[in-house]
């Protein structure tokens, strides 16, 4: 139950060199939170708002429309402790720095350690909406649950023209939207990075049920995210990834039990850029779609390249083509195939449109022997079977453990950890989520 508290706003001002200041607001009511946001818009300080542990049921959306080129950091007591509840009636938090005179490159937005639940909007960003011109946006250690948007980003919608967007260690559960049911991060020329996030049970009436990730000319990077049980009515059950003229790199991600009516049950990757690179991901646990049940890649220019190395694509289904993997290497329909590099993967069924620029070697078709949480069991044929020269080979696996523990990298998101035995051989060591031998 939300506490009834007196209006007390505590502000600590710390002076720094050059006559600039940092203001700290400690708040414990929705009214105090909004008062702090309003003060931070124009106090010419770098601001931090600490939001106490409690459940805050919001009568109206919290808003921040900055007029200054200063940083704002919002910190909760932790997801599950500081809970912002929209009561299925209002967007929870709306932040905008696009009106800063002279540019907003220094107006960083950082949101950390809180839960956004049951936000709702006839528009974009049911839980959180952030828009900047050049300011970077960081969202970390937050939970987004049961938020809804009629347009984009049921849980979170972040847009910047030239800044960078980073989502780290967040959970998106049961959110819904027209596109990007869980999250919709977009940058025109900056980078978009998603790492160690969990997307589960999100839905969309169009594409990118877990996440819809877009960059016009910047780089998209997805590392060690888990997409499970998300559902799209068009494409990208787990994720839709669009590097329009830039690059996309997917590493150590897991896609399981996602569905799409048309393309890419696990993920749909569409590029008119230079390359999409998928290294050491796992698409398993029956992702389903009409085409590309596990993964669908569409290459829209002749010079684009799909690099697919060290991935497990197993047990997925498609009603038309490519149970595990489908690559449309002529998505522009001009009769010239883009390049596909397919090396050291484990899949059962792969299909492509033309295939005249296909290079492939060292792939296998064997049960990868996965555990229930998609780690490799003892005796898996994927152990020590990956390519050490794979582009974008990560230094660690999905658990943050060393990537190459044995004689060669493993295939898939997990890397089995070995220790030297007394006889000079190798043996499994006990780690979370890994088998022992």
Q: Topology of this structure?
A:
Blueprint: E1 10-15, E2 21-27, H1 30-40, E3 46-51, E4 54-57, E5 62-65, E6 72-76, E7 82-85, E8 93-96, E9 109-112, E10 115-117, E11 120-121, E12 128-132, E13 137-140, E14 143-145, E15 148-149, E16 156-160, E17 165-168, E18 171-173, E19 176-179, E20 183-187, E21 192-195, E22 198-200, E23 203-207, E24 211-215, E25 219-223, E26 226-228, E27 231-232, E28 239-243, E29 247-251, E30 254-256, E31 259-260, E32 267-271, E33 275-279, E34 282-284, E35 288-291, E36 295-299, E37 305-309, E38 312-313, E39 317-321, E40 325-328, E41 339-343, E42 346-347, E43 350-352, E44 358-361, E45 418-420, E46 426-428
Parallel strand pairs: 2-3, 3-6, 4-7, 5-8, 6-9, 7-10, 8-12, 9-13, 10-14, 11-15, 12-16, 13-17, 14-18, 16-20, 17-21, 18-22, 19-23, 20-24, 21-25, 22-26, 23-27, 24-28, 25-29, 26-30, 27-31, 28-32, 29-33, 30-34, 32-36, 33-37, 34-38, 35-39, 36-40, 37-41, 38-42, 40-43, 41-44
Antiparallel strand pairs: 1-2, 45-46
List keywords for this structure.
437 residues, mainly beta, 2 domains, 14-stranded mixed sheet, 11-stranded parallel sheet, 46 strands, globular, disordered N terminus
Structure description:
58% of the residues are buried. The strands form 7 sheets. The protein has a 14-stranded mixed beta sheet, covered by helices on one side. It folds into 2 domains: 190 residues, no CATH class; 234 residues. The chain is globular. Helix content is 3%, strand content 42%. Strand 2, helix 1 and strand 3 form a beta-alpha-beta unit. It has 437 residues and is mostly beta strands. The protein is built from 1 helix and 46 strands.
